[in-house]
Specification:
There is one protein chain. This protein has 1 helix and 5 strands, in the order E-E-H-E-E-E. The protein is an alpha+beta fold.
């Protein structure tokens, strides 16, 4: 405690990124530009409702599957078979966006 009797507030070691409601930050499988990517999670979100660990795991699995099956474009330009791309959100963080459907 300081001399005034109040505890001093310290900043968290990990700065939390602001994420849009209904989106989860998941690890980038390639670790290319940023350590995390914002991914939409399924299900309806009420105000103040938190994303469950199961929903975050599902978003992580989806991102890995897109990467492993060459359906993710990191350059922004979609080539044959690619359905999703990474775009920057308002604060410059990468965000997963579906651009088109693919019939296999």
């Amino acid at each position: 405690m300081s001399e005034s009797g109040k505890q001093r507030k310290t900043k968290s070691r990990r700065a939390r990124k602001a994420v849009e409601p209904g989106r989860a930050l998941v690890p980038d499988p390639a670790g290319a530009k940023a350590p995390h990517i914002s991914v939409q999670v399924s299900g309806k979100r009420g105000k103040g409702k938190q994303i469950t660990p199961a929903e975050k795991d599902e978003a992580t699995t989806t991102l890995r599957a897109l990467e492993n099956n060459a359906q993710l474009s990191r350059s922004g330009k979609l080539e044959g078979g690619q359905t999703h791309s990474l775009e920057s959100d308002g604060s410059g963080n990468p965000r997963l966006v579906r651009k088109r459907f693919s019939a296999l």
